[in-house]
Amino acid sequence: MSKPSKSNDFELHADEIVDAAVEIFQEAGLDAVSMRSVSTRLGVSPVPLYSRIGNRDALVDAIADRLLEDLAPPSNEDERWDDYALRWSRELRARLGQARDSRLIIWHGREAYVEASRPLARLMRHDGFATDAAVQACRLLIWATVGFGAVEGGVEPPSSRRGRSRPGGDPGGVDPAETDTLFDLHIRYLIEGIARDLGATSTLPPRNPAPKTSTETATKKARKRP
Fold first, then answer.
1. Are the C-beta atoms of 146 and 96 separated by less than 8 Å?
2. pTM of the model
3. What is the pLDDT of residues 209-220, one digit of tens each?
């Protein structure tokens, strides 16, 4: 729906343009967003959009920046880096789900990802990481989460069930609950690898082993059977 035309097109602010573009994206997807569709929504000519925002690529970047701002959850002073990293990755995934379109999320150079990594990197350095190791670990977690989110957007539910199996073990597909389980496994394995890489230089006390899942317990019992 177009909005009433402004008396002066150049009274338009960049935030109003991005607001309208985000509305169109949420209603009809990224392909529906154009300089003309946004100008029609705002009731102005396309000219001020180019002077305020730039071309369509810049408009898409602005949509991504809006949807991905303030990604990182707050950290607690007594929270260990690995606990926060799991919570941080879950929040990042949830926010990426709002963006939906992989074209908005897969570019690793987005400033939103750099900003989101700062509290995690800070906590990692507090827990014994060198600065370059913390940056590397944050990048691995971001790429893993963003990549999972991009793939998740095209996941289809399984066409049939052939009895109980490991989450994600049915070649026919996965359901939403299994996707959640797969994501936690995906990130947990990566965090455990990062922790091992930190190795003897870590100032962290030994961790108690995580409780085994019912699937892991059943698998272990099965292996012990003659």
1. yes
2. 0.70
3. 444 544 444 444
